[in-house]
């Protein structure tokens, strides 16, 4: 009887842990998006607005893990990014599209350095409307250097 209860407990723990496991994502996965130019009155300018594909939409709200280059844009304001490319060739410098960066909202301030290769885990939020934030945002994020 005790043996059966033990194995049922082990099964339940495994089921909960496997249900909460993060999904490993690559930059290629995040490329399932197209962009159109849209005018915004608030800025009197045009911005690229994403239309997320079904593969990316399926990741929304899930805990994902992705590896890239850490960018510390404004640490005093908590503004950090993860990029497919190093700082010198990231999206902001013309080295890729908006799908090649993620905005990171860390639980604790990281000790990473710019261009350090890191793996970040967090809950993926898709952003198609707020031009003051990236299209991909990882919330409640944590990470480690490789």
UniProtKB/TrEMBL annotation:
Protein name: DUF3299 domain-containing protein
Organism phylogeny: Bacteria, Pseudomonadati, Bacteroidota, Flavobacteriia, Flavobacteriales
